[in-house]
Every structure is written in C-alpha cells, then in structure tokens.
C-alpha cells in the first residue's frame, strides 16, 4: 500500500466505525427493538444504545487523532493546540475562498505587503524579480552560478507559516569569518538548488518545507543583467550599481533594459496572471524591483490581456539615485514607459503625514515623501487611472513601511469589485 494513502484509509475506517455506532444507537432508541424483543425490550435498548455511543465517541477520538498526527508529520510544527487547529480550519474554509491575487515586484516592499495579504486570502502568487546582483545574493550568484535568492527568500518567509525560531534562523546573517555578510536563508536555498539541480524546484521545495501560503515564483529562470540608460546619456550596468552611480551622476533614469534581450517567464507565472482576480505591481524600487519584471518577453501583453484589474502601489518615500524628487505621476510614467499607455487601472497612494523626526532621518539620505503633484490626480484620471488614497504608514524603529493590513484591505476590496472604476 502506498504510504501517502494509508492515513486517509485509517481515517476512513474510523469514520465507518462511527457510522456503525450511529446505526446501533438509532436501533437502540427505536421502537423496532420493542417489536422484535418484547420480553427483553429495555435491556436490548440499553445495550444497543451504550454500544452505539461508545463507538461514536471512540470513532471521533481516533479520527481526530489521525488528522492531528497527519498535520504534525506534514507540517507546521509539533506542538499543535486548539488555537492552531482553529487557525487551520479558518484558513482552509475562509482564506481558500479569497480572491486570486498576483503580486509582482521584489525587495522589502513586496515582502511587507505579502505579510498582510496572507491574512485576507491564501490564493496568492508572488512573482519576484531575479535581477539582484548585490550583497550576499550577488556573491552566491557569482560563485555558484545560481539566480539571486535574496528577494525570493524574503517573500517565502513573509508567506510562511512556521515557528518564530525557524524564521530567525533563516533571517540570520553571519557577521564573522568566511561567511560574513551571508544570510542563512540564502545558503539554505543555495543548498536546495544544488540538491535538486534546479532553482525553480529549490524554491518550490523550500516553500513546502516552510508551509508557505500561496506560491512564490521567480519571474524568469534566465541569468539576466539590468542596465539603466540615463537622461544625460550614460549607461549603468548592474542592479546594485544603478542607484549608487546615478546618485553620483545626478541624472534621471530614462529607461532600463536587460540582457540577454530575450528572456521568458515561467509558464506557472503566466497562468497565475491569466487566472488572477487582481494583479498588483509593487510596492518596491521602481526601476530595480518592479519594472525589471515587465522586461521579460510578452509579460506586458499577458498582464494587459488578463481580466483582473491592474493596480500599482507607489512607494511611501523616494529612493536616492533612483526616484529623486519623483511624484506619484512620475512613478506611474515610469511604469507606462516600460509597458503601454493604458496598462494600469488603479494607483494606490499614501496621504498620511509622517512624523518630522522620522523624516529628518530619511532627509539626511536624500529621501523624501512621494506626494501627489498639484495636477497628478487630474492627469491620471484623464488616462483612465483611478487614484485611491489612504493612511498607509507603519513606522517601526524609525523605518517607514506600508501598513500591510490596511493596504491589503484596499486590494481585496478592488478584487471583489467594491471599488468602482472611473469612467472617461
């Protein structure tokens, strides 16, 4: 017998025993016994009733035990309690019926959004850029010839249902020795890549180990390099070099492109986009996390043809060397330049004021709030793009992030058609 079917057959056996118990209990309580055994009616009734109740209780206990045992073997952690079971039932019954959301991007912004989104739906597909070439990911990419795992690792952990200790372990960064600067989670994915001989399989198996809600997919399996063409004519090579070099040159980015020029998306990613109730771009670095995904062959047309509404989430703050002095309209034009004019349906914008002491810290790095310019909303509306505004700030340890829960509520409302589209 195949081992994977054995638990199901055991549970089925205990349920069958419970059905028999119910049958005997009904016999014990019916007048059938009285008709058949007039002389011993009370004794037979009591015996059948006791046997029936015993079998029912025994069946329920054994079935419940097998289900819990199966959960322990396959998943989340060995210390299952009533709260865990309630959460699992909630996720299965409620979240599994949530809208199908595809989120495209990379970096910290995407992982922050995913942590909130998984509280509203389990039908999530995160499609992540693989253009990263800096830090620990860049070293692994160069040494092992693998795709960069950093952004993908962050998204997997954001969607994982695992113990805090395991998350701390996978987030741990070595600060001494030959591994200084390396993240343990990146090394884990690198090991899985070696074991399975495929980056795609490495991501899937890592997701299985960590009981990930939804899916995390690389946009492409090609070894791509990002280039930025500046308005002053310079070209910068490498994702990690773009903001650094451009900060020195003080020029706006005109466009970006990738080499090789031909790269293909994963079939699974294309299918997820086509089937989505909502397609989200960002939040994340405009030119190095979000737009690189749009440079993969045919992905713009795939997104455009998909029936789900397309939403772009602007960053809360500008990024030095990348989006200096950009307004909301500037961000949208960056997306449109690398896609098509009628690509987006909605833009989500933060309008909550940021505390001055926090802004001072960011200002020292050359970063400032992304605001709606005086005519931005009118211009966007004329293009058929609806601006959705909200208080979306979450500040922790002086770091500004999106309020993932509030942002997720907005997205789910759009997916469920609770936000009407403007007419032009």
Report on this model:
The chain crosses the membrane at residues 12-34, 40-60. InterPro entries: CofD (IPR002882), CofD-like_dom_sf (IPR038136), Gluconeogen_factor (IPR010119). With 424 residues, the protein is α/β, with parallel strands linked by helices. Helices cover 49% and strands 13% of the residues. It is built from 18 helices and 12 strands. The protein has helices spanning 6-29, 32-36, 41-74, 82-93, 107-117, 135-144, 150-159, 164-171, 184-196, 199-209, 241-249, 267-274, 286-294, 299-305, 328-337, 356-363, 376-382, 404-415, and strands spanning 101-105, 124-128, 215-218, 225-230, 235-237, 253-259, 278-281, 310-313, 346-350, 386-390, 393-396, 399-402. A 7-stranded parallel sheet has the order 3-2-1-7-8-9-10, with helices on both faces. Strand 11 and strand 12 form a beta hairpin. The radius of gyration is 27 Å and the shape is globular.
Number of helices: 18
Which range best describes the helical content: under 10%, 10-25%, 25-40%, 40-55%, 55-70% or over 70%? 40-55%
The first-level CATH class of the largest domain is given as Alpha Beta
Q: Which residues form runs of ≥5 with pLDDT under 50?
A: none
What is the fourth-level CATH superfamily of the largest domain? Answer: CofD-like domains
Q: How many domain regions?
A: 2
Largest sheet, in brief, is: 7 strands, parallel
The fold-level CATH name of the largest domain is Rossmann fold
What structural class results from the helix and strand content?
Answer: alpha/beta
Q: Based on CA inertia axes, which overall geometry fits?
A: globular
Over all CA atoms, what is the radius of gyration?
27 Å
């Amino acid at each position: 017998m195949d081992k994977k079917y054995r638990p199901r057959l055991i549970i089925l056996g205990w349920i069958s025993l419970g059905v028999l118990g119910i049958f005997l209990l009904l016999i014990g309580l019916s007048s059938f016994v009285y008709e058949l055994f007039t002389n011993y009616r009370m004794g037979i009734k009591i015996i059948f009733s006791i046997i029936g109740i015993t079998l029912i209780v025994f069946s329920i206990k054994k079935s419940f035990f097998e289900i819990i045992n199966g959960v322990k073997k396959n998943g989340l952690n060995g210390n299952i309690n009533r709260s865990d079971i309630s959460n699992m039932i909630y996720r299965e019954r409620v979240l599994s019926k949530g809208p199908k959301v595809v989120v495209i991007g990379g970096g910290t912004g995407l992982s922050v959004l995913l942590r909130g989104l998984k509280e509203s739906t389990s039908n999530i597909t995160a499609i992540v850029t693989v253009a990263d070439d800096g830090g620990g990911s860049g070293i692994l990419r160069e040494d092992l010839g693998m795709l960069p795992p950093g952004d993908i690792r962050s998204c997997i952990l954001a969607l994982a249902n695992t113990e805090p200790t395991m998350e701390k372990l996978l987030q741990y960064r070595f600060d001494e020795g030959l591994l200084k600067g390396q993240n343990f989670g990146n090394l884990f994915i690198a090991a899985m890549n070696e074991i399975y001989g495929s980056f795609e399989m490495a991501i899937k198996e890592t997701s299985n180990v960590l009981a990930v809600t939804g899916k995390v997919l690389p946009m492409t399996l090609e070894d791509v390099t990002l280039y930025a063409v500046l308005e002053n004519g310079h070209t910068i090579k490498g994702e990690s070099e773009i903001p650094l070099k451009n900060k020195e040159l003080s020029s706006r980015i005109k466009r970006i492109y990738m080499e090789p020029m031909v790269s293909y998306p994963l079939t699974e990613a294309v299918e997820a986009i086509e089937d989505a109730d909502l397609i989200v771009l960002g939040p994340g670095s405009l030119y190095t996390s979000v737009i690189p995904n749009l440079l993969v062959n045919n992905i713009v047309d795939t997104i455009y043809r998909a029936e789900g509404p397309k939403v772009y989430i602007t960053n809360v703050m500008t990024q030095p060397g990348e989006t200096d002095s950009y307004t909301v309209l500037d961000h949208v034009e960056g997306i449109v330049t690398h896609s098509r004019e009628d690509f987006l349906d909605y833009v989500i914008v933060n309008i909550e004021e940021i505390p001055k002491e926090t802004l001072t810290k960011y200002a020292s790095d050359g970063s400032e709030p992304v605001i709606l310019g005086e005519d931005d909303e009118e211009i966007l509306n004329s293009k058929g793009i609806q601006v959705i505004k909200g208080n979306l700030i979450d500040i922790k340890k002086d770091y500004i992030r999106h309020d993932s829960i509030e942002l997720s509520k907005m997205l789910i409302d759009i997916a469920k058609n609770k936000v009407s589209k403007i007419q032009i």
